[in-house]
Amino acid sequence: MDKGNGVERRGPAAQGPASPEAPAEDTGAGRVPGSGPSSRLAKPSGDAEREAPAGSGSEDPYSTPPYGQPGPWAPAPPVQRPDPTPPTGTRLPPPADGGSLGSGAPLSQAPPPADGGSLGGVPSAAGPRRYDPWASPEPSPPVAIPVTVGAAQAPPSRTRRLVAGAAVIALLAGVVGGLVGVWLEREGAFSEVRLPQTSNGSSAAPSGSIAGIADALLPGVVTLHAPGGQSGTGFVLDDRGHILTNAHVVSGGAGAGTPVEVTFSSGDTVSGEVVGAHGGYDLAVVKVSGVSGLTPLELGDSDEVRVGDPVVAIGSPFGLAGTVTSGIISATERPITAGGEQADGSDISYVNALQTDAPINPGNSGGPLADGQGRVIGVNSVIRSVDNGGPEAGSVGLGFAIPVNQAKDVAEQLINTGRATHPVIGVTLDTRYTGEGARVGSSTDQPAVVAGGPADEAGVRDGDVITAVDGDRITDADELIIRIRSHRPGDELALTVERDGRELSIAVVLDEAPDQ
């Protein structure tokens, strides 16, 4: 038995040396199952054993294989490793041998030997596998290499150009889309239009402003409706219900007790009655009873008014209650007359008025004219219009108000006594005189100077021409009356008189005359 190669030989074949063409090789996997550790090496069928060549000598006790064949002292064969797998997607040329991959490994194995032995050092599947360092390496299993099917990939430079172009197009599309979106948003294409609005809040109007003056005065201003369709404005004097207005608003100075409807700024309407009126001053007082919460207006001093002072007028022009207008004082002591519709001239009023450019229209009559502090300085009374005060007359910036100092005196007389008086000098004036000043004279048989009157006692004579009062020039008879009525009974006036070419100065103490 030769154990030098790990193979047991018995019988005649063991007597001679091993054939160099078919060396005895134990792979550790070629034993027949069930033969145990002393199984024979598989031999081909038939008489395939070859005799040892002549002259080979005696049997090699170590079973040394011929030169170049694997043996115990031969160098180990190099380790064979499979070629590295190419990256996914790499296109490979077809194998040169028509069926191998990597290092010539066959894609399909040959059929096993007919005797069931091993092939190429590959152990039979029938026995257990054992590592044999001298066996040929097992062929690597076929590796599936994915191959991209379709058109060839674009060159990298072309791809970069395509990516850059796509980025530029996307950027331009984003910019254009943003601009279009902003424009559509501003045009209200995506939402309802909401206009900007600011508010000053609920703070009170500044004191002294037109809004502040209006807030203070409106609660004390009323609208009056008298019999006959007359209407106008008035304002509250005290908390007892006395209201001041123009005489022509309550039917030209109708007597006491005439009913009048009074409408307050709150919209409440109550009944009132006329306390008294004076046609020569165009003033009247109305009283309402049983009304609480009245707002009397503060009275100012008309003697302190200067040209250019700001003023506010409040009234009910053409029935529009609570209308507020503003302007300035255009002139003071402007002599005007109004009325004259009565045959006896009892409705003619003579007013030394305050002139204003604050718009005053029909219906404003009797309303307050207030200064910059909200104090009443006048009673709106007369306007000068293009059609000379017709029914369709309107403001042209020429409005006139009775000074509040004069209105206060008349109102106190009407409230306290029911009637009012005006000062006189006791003369008759010649209205036919067209020269400068006012001439004393009569167109009837009655004497021009009342006997025992103020003028008679001062020495005024028939035919004298009065040219000035207290140094202020007089242009006509109406202006002389206005100047006299702007004073109180008992006041002393200095008259400048022309007589027979001479100029005289005569002092006259005013007397009072009852209202007719």
UniProtKB/TrEMBL annotation:
Compositional bias ranges of the Pro residues kind: 63-96
GO molecular function: serine-type endopeptidase activity
GO BP: any one term: proteolysis
Sorted UniProt keywords: Hydrolase, Membrane, Protease, Transmembrane, Transmembrane helix
Gene3D superfamilies: 2.30.42.10, 2.40.10.120
Taxonomy, superkingdom: Bacteria
Compositionally biased spans, kind Basic and acidic residues: 1-11
Transmembrane segments: 162-184
Keyword flag Glycosyltransferase: no
Region called Disordered, residue ranges: 1-139
Entries under InterPro entries matching the protein: Chloro_Bact_Ser_Proteases, PDZ, PDZ_sf, Peptidase_S1_PA, Peptidase_S1C
Stored SMART domains: PDZ
PROSITE patterns: PDZ
CDD domains hit by this protein: cpPDZ_Deg_HtrA-like (cd06779)
Domain (PDZ) ranges: 414-501
PANTHER family: PEPTIDASE S12, PROTEASE DO-LIKE 8, CHLOROPLASTIC
Protein name, UniProt field: Putative serine protease PepD
Organism lineage string: Bacteria, Bacillati, Actinomycetota, Actinomycetes, Kitasatosporales
